[in-house]
UniProtKB/TrEMBL annotation:
<keyword id="KW-0813">Transport</keyword>
<feature type="transmembrane region" description="Helical">
    <location>
        <begin position="59"/>
        <end position="78"/>
    </location>
</feature>
<keyword id="KW-0472">Membrane</keyword>
<feature type="transmembrane region" description="Helical">
    <location>
        <begin position="33"/>
        <end position="50"/>
    </location>
</feature>
<feature type="transmembrane region" description="Helical">
    <location>
        <begin position="84"/>
        <end position="103"/>
    </location>
</feature>
<dbReference type="InterPro" id="IPR000390">
    <property type="entry name" value="Small_drug/metabolite_transptr"/>
</dbReference>
<keyword id="KW-1133">Transmembrane helix</keyword>
<comment type="similarity">
    <text>Belongs to the drug/metabolite transporter (DMT) superfamily. Small multidrug resistance (SMR) (TC 2.A.7.1) family. Gdx/SugE subfamily.</text>
</comment>
<protein>
    <recommendedName>
        <fullName>Guanidinium exporter</fullName>
    </recommendedName>
</protein>
<dbReference type="Pfam" id="PF00893">
    <property type="entry name" value="Multi_Drug_Res"/>
</dbReference>
<dbReference type="InterPro" id="IPR045324">
    <property type="entry name" value="Small_multidrug_res"/>
</dbReference>
<dbReference type="InterPro" id="IPR037185">
    <property type="entry name" value="EmrE-like"/>
</dbReference>
<keyword id="KW-0812">Transmembrane</keyword>
<keyword id="KW-1003">Cell membrane</keyword>
Amino acid sequence: MAWVYLLIAAAFEICWAIGLKYTQGFTKLWPSVLTVTAMAVSFAFLSLAVRTIPIGTGYVVWTGIGAVGTAVLGIILFGEPITVWRALFLLLIVGGVVGLKFTSTIPH
């Protein structure tokens, strides 16, 4: 269940990161309220996840999924550039996240 919590936390991290763009420096009320709410939900689920998952692994997976998801949505929603190098480095992040997930389940 901890990995499900971590995925939920990461999804809400993507929401609040994208939400920051819509708050316009926290000058827009409802986007700001939704963004801060997404932050709270993200942190709450992260805290549940790291009760079981090692903090280093949990935090890196959370930020990795959030970073890749935010970058992809930035490309889709805001027309941010996608280059071969950018795609390559995003894939490296994904590889690192997947590697950490699988190696954290190997018994010591």
